[in-house]
Amino acid sequence: MFKRKIEQELTRWASSRYRKPLILRGARQTGKTTVIRRFASNFENFLSIDLEKKTARALFESTDNVGELMPLLFLYCNVKRREGRTLLFIDEIQNSPHTVRLLRYFYEEMPEIHVIAAGSLLETILDKHVSIPVGRVEYMALHPCSFTEFLNATGEERYVQPVLEAAIPQSLHDELTRFFRQFALIGGMPEAVARYAAEKDVVSLSSVYNQLLNTYKTDVEKYAETNTQAAVIRYILDAGMPFAGEAITFGGFAASPYKARETGEAFRTLQKAMLLELVYPVTSAIMPVTPDLKRSPKLFWLDAGLVNHAAKIRREYLLHSDLMDTWRGKAAEQIVWQEIKNLTFDVGETSNFWKREKRGSNAETDLIYVFDGLIIPVEVKSGHNAHLKSLHQFMEESSQDVAVRIWSGYYSVDEVKTLSGRTFRLLNLPMYLIPALPGLLTRLV
Predict the structure, then answer these.
(1) How far apart are the first and last CA of the chain?
(2) Phi, psi (degrees; rounded to nearest 5) at 187
(3) pLDDT of 3-22, one tens digit each?
(4) Which of 307, 151, 164 minimizes the C-alpha distance to 241?
(5) Going from the N-terminus, what domains does the chain have, and what CATH number goes with each?
(6) What are the tens digits of pLDDT across the range 18-66?
(7) Are 18 and 145 in contact (CB under 8 A)?
(8) How confident is the prediction for the chain on average, in pLDDT?
(9) CA distances from 273 to 1, 149, 216, 266 (A)
(10) How far is 408 from 245, CA to CA, in rounded Å?
């Protein structure tokens, strides 16, 4: 067990006077239960209920009166109530729609009880089988481990604060780059990170990745509505990871016989399960962000370590000293997307990239990052500033003057001119400093 940064967010939630029951969302095996058990040490009373157990479900479904329910929960958990705060954790809540509805009564009638609910498959049934009490709950997203969490887990916690403050001297650049390459290879699945921290053996992680992938494939039966959809989802899980970082088309994806409608539905189901994200382009450089859903999305998967294992590209990390050269640059794009995703715990936060709308132009930036009401272009590229053609074209159309280039070089802020003479500031960010991005942008914008 190692510290996760979401614990700070949970502490803020617990101390807020406006607190509501919290639904913690995230893919299977991202550490939701472990995080809550660590967080529970801050409470005098902790009740953990798993609704995969029939007796637990029956207990919750026996009443609508949460005041009557609480003593029964203490009895069920064999916990003697003490003076102080109580944390009630309801795991696999998707197994009981009745319990989901009870969350509003905890909010209205027993606000002194801290309630957290989680469910690994909840995302796939929210719209169809479960009615969430609108305005009576709040959400938080748990992603795979970030780079700073990887540093914590592997005994390099001394670097965490300097990374967050972008205070890494150039003399330590190579060492932090090496740590980040390890992270990009291993990924952020908590079990894989913990195993590597204990054994320092990448080869031994194959069994962890296989077990995780088999778990996701087994879950197909739980969230696929038809046999055809189950077959398409299995195909995507089997054949889709080598397409990480690429723009995809649904029809015939990965040389499959499936039609666009079937494949699109399967991808959207996997996206609800938070196993992947379809990243659509926007065509404007100014707010608001309006994705063009008619264009091909880029595909990014839950975790780089799973991608490296499933796509059989781990050897690539040994062949190339620069992550930008690994797997034709796709390894860098996958891990950069993953790290930027980890900058927020907001459930509704989506990723996008920019694509120029003008006919005959194929300019696009790798990603965009919305910050303080501004669209910041993000390129994942090495090379001289003048070679960042797409980023320059974005800045020609933008109303702000900051752009981000994520690369393997040193940290710097350059003043750059476009061909038309427009000046902007280019934030050159080593990959290991992505966690510092919000703080750096605060200074610049």
Answers:
(1) 38
(2) 85, -170
(3) 899 999 999 999 999 999 99
(4) 307
(5) 6-141 (3.40.50.300), 207-444 (no CATH)
(6) 999 999 999 999 999 999 999 999 999 999 999 999 999 999 999 999 9
(7) no
(8) 94
(9) 24, 23, 10, 11
(10) 18
